[in-house]
Amino acid sequence: MKGFIIYPGSRVIEGVPCVLLYGRLENGQSFLTINKFKPYFFIESKNLKKAKKLGDFEVEETDLTNFKKEKVTKLILNHPKDISELKSIFLNTPLSLALFSSSIRSKALLIISPTFDSFLLL
């Protein structure tokens, strides 16, 4: 059965950041999915060594590039508040590291992720 997302929400449940997807099934019933989701953003791969000196995060290499065709690396954090703290550190250093997707909320990142479909099969 297909389900369509009506509204995304986010909440920390027992210390774990989650994205809540409220939706409607083909038969008219409503549903809620709760998805564990670690917030992330990207930096230019060439700045990864500098970034590691400024904060603690998981790293995921990607095939993605910025508009200048420079490789970017995904930095994954444990909690949504960590994004704003690390973003502030990165932007207030003499290095002024370029950040990508750092202003997008977790609930939107999940929906725009390349691995996410616009409908759910339940």
Strand order in the sheet with the most strands: 3-2-1-8
Number of strands: 8
Number of helices: 3
CATH superfamily of the largest domain: B family DNA polymerase, N domain, alpha/beta motif
Average pLDDT taken over every residue: 82
Question: How many domains make up the 3D coordinates?
Answer: 2
Broad shape:
elongated
The end-to-end distance, rounded to whole angstroms, is 5 Å
Low-pLDDT runs of 5+ residues are none
> Which range does the strand content fall in?
35-45%
The percentage helix is: 10-25%
Kindly identify the CATH topology of the largest domain.
Alpha-Beta Plaits
Top-tier CATH class of the largest domain? Alpha Beta
Structure commentary:
The chain has 122 residues and is of the alpha+beta class. The chain has 2 domains: 2-36 and 117-121; 40-107, Alpha-Beta Plaits (2-Layer Sandwich). 20% of the residues lie in helices and 43% in strands. It has helices spanning 48-52, 80-91, 106-112, and strands at 2-13, 16-25, 30-36, 40-44, 58-65, 71-76, 99-100, 119-121. The strands form 2 sheets. A 4-stranded antiparallel β-sheet has the order 3-2-1-8. The longest helix has 12 residues, at 80-91. 13% of the residues are buried.
